[in-house]
Automatic annotation (TrEMBL):
InterPro entries: SPACA1. This is SACA1 protein. Keywords: Membrane, Transmembrane, Transmembrane helix. The chain crosses the membrane at residues 156-181. GO terms for biological process: acrosome assembly. The gene is Spaca1. It comes from the Eukaryota.
Length: 213
């Protein structure tokens, strides 16, 4: 165990959430057993701003959507209040009081909000937009078109690279064949060039000798 006679210092870890309710570690920075510089003494709750903005559904299909409230175990510790938000009207409280609600799509988009309450106080709030069936089909078709256009562009780039590689390879092969077939000519040209260079060097040496004399 920890030595109670040693003065202790406490450090708090990072909260697991930026809004609502989460957990964090409480670390001891002095008096840990052995050679440990820090050790966990407990895990406690931590809270951020209650408004968590817009959430992401657990599952979202063309027909129905599952939406979670914000909570930490145990689930039954909190009270959950689901509301349907109507523009320019008072929010309609729904009979559902569970942490997860499943709704099916309607002919128009609907915004839902879940308030997680404890002792009558709202400690977390999150909203979801459930789009209409027609909007989801439109989004799906747009995603399909985008995916097809990306695949088309990728295919075009691959074809271009393949054609360029073939052209370069064929050019190298032709160059090698040309050098093999005309090896004698290339050799004679190289030898004649080397001879001219040698003659020029000899003449230059003779001129330098004459100048010295």
């Amino acid at each position: 165990g920890l030595n109670a006679t040693v003065s202790t210092e406490v450090e708090f870890g990072v909260c697991t959430v930026t809004c609502g309710i989460g957990i964090r570690e409480v670390l001891l920075t002095s008096g840990c057993p052995g050679t440990e510089a820090k050790c966990i003494v407990r895990v406690e709750e931590c809270r951020g701003p209650a408004d968590c903005g817009w959430g992401i559904p657990i599952s979202e299909g063309l027909a129905c959507v599952k939406m979670p409230c914000i909570y930490i175990p145990p689930e039954n510790r909190f009270k959950y209040v689901w509301k349907m938000l109507i523009p320019n009207k008072t929010a309609q409280i729904l009979p559902n009081d569970s942490a997860i609600m499943e709704v099916c799509r309607d002919t128009h988009s609907v915004t839902f909000q879940c308030e997680t309450q404890e002792n009558g106080n709202t400690i977390a709030s999150v909203k979801y937009t459930v789009y209409a069936t027609t909007e989801m089909e439109t989004k799906k078709s747009r995603r399909t078109e985008t995916g097809q256009s990306r695949r088309t562009m990728t295919d075009a780039i691959l074809v271009f690279c393949l054609v360029t590689g073939i052209i370069v390879t064929v050019g190298v092969i032709f160059a090698m064949v040309f050098m093999i077939l005309h090896r004698a000519v290339i050799k004679s040209i190289w030898e004649s060039k080397s001879g001219q260079d040698n003659q020029e060097k000899k003449l230059a040496n003779k001129r330098s000798l004459c100048n010295m004399e």
